[in-house]
Amino acid sequence: MKEDNGLDTYVEENGRKFLRHYLIDFGSTLGAGKDPAEYFHGRAYLIDTKSILKELFTLGLYESPYEKEGIMISPAVGMFTSDDFHPEGWVSTYPVLPFDNMTDQDAYWAMRIVLSFTEPELRSIVETASYSDPKDTDYVLRTLLERRSILARHWLPKVDALSDFSVRPLDGGIALAFRDVMIDSKTQDPDSTSYSYQVKGERYTSEMKTTRNRSIAVDRATLTAAIEHGGPDGLVEVTIWTNRQGSSSGPVKVYFDWSPARDSFAIRRISRG
User: Fold this and answer.
1) Residue 230 CB-half CA count within 13 A
2) Per residue in 164-201, pLDDT tens?
3) Domains of the chain and CATH, by start
4) Are the beta carbons of 137 and 218 closer than 8 angstroms?
5) pTM for the whole thing?
6) SS (H, E, C) the chain
7) Which residues of the chain have a pLDDT value below 70?
8) Cα gap 157→246, rounded to integer Å
9) 5-12: long-range contacts (C-beta < 8 A, 24 or more apart)?
């Protein structure tokens, strides 16, 4: 979506006046354009300086996406496939600033949203296209699921893909639980994943421990040591590193307060990297 693909109107309905936002012109959605037979969509900009320069300096030996031809799935679907879908090389038809400025953390946030849709929900969305041939509906759904898996395998390993942290009471302490998006999306084997963690306070650092559970138990003695001699707003910090197949991710840090008198706790912030 380009900046001019929006329209704001001031409307009145049932005696209530408000601003209504419209999104218009979806011609470039999913990297496509008005002509689905043009292979370059999703692979090069409409005017792609890099491709032009490559062709120029190789005296035409470089074959740009403008010159290639894809396989037409059907007149309704066009050339929408997952076979040659490469996330690192995908581009929109027109340069879009959010994509240009996207960080690995941004991509992780987007992947969590993409993965949150269930297969029945995606089918319902695809069915709104009202394809005349049911085979096209099934194909588009299957391709979306395949492309989503490719995206997950590409972007999720670039960050510590832990999310949905929560703290609950445990006999003699607390349990810090979380989701592992890579395991939940079946892009990583849980048997080859472990989590190293360390508890810190302003003047305390615990020994590092490792577990395969997606719940970290912190005993009361460790909690007390973490907040001892700290300020009135001192927080307990739990740093977690995810170990997958011999490599370790960057740390994710969860900060929460804990009151020994009331045995109460609440997560205050989460820091990654």
Assistant:
1) 21
2) 999 998 888 899 999 999 999 998 899 999 999 999 99
3) 6-157 (no CATH), 162-272 (2.60.40.10)
4) no
5) 0.78
6) CCCCCEEEEEEEECCEEEEEEEECCCCCHHHCCCCCCCCCCCCCCCCCHHHHHHHHHCCCCCCCCCCCCCCCCECCCECCCCCCCCHHHCCCCCCCHHHHCCCHHHHHHHHHHHHCCCHHHHHHHHHCCCCCCHHHHHHHHHHHHHHHHHHHHHHHHHCCCEEEEEEEEECCEEEEEEEEHHHHCCCCCHHHEEEEEEEEECCEECCCEEECCCEEEEEHHHHHHHHCCCCCCCCEEEEEEEEECCEECCCEEEEEEEECCCCEEEEEEEEEC
7) 1-3, 26-37, 229-233, 261-263
8) 13
9) none
CA distance to 44, 74, 106, 246, per residue, from 155 (Å): 20, 30, 10, 18
From the CB of residue 176, how many other CB atoms can be counted at a distance below 10 Å? 24
Q: What is the pLDDT of residue 33?
A: 54
Predicted pLDDT at 222 = 93
- Give the CA distances from residue 269 to residues 30, 34, 53, 243, in Å, rounded to whole numbers and listed in that order: 35, 45, 47, 23
Residue whose C-alpha is closest to residue 223's, from 197, 187, 190, 260: 260
CA angle at residue 158 from 215 to 201, to 5 degrees?
45
Cβ 247 vs Cβ 194: under 8 Å? no
Q: Return the pLDDT at 229.
A: 63
CA distance 84 to 70: 10
pLDDT attached to residue 247: 86
State residue 31's pLDDT score.
Answer: 47
Give the separation between CA 122 and CA 23, rounded to whole angstroms.
Answer: 21
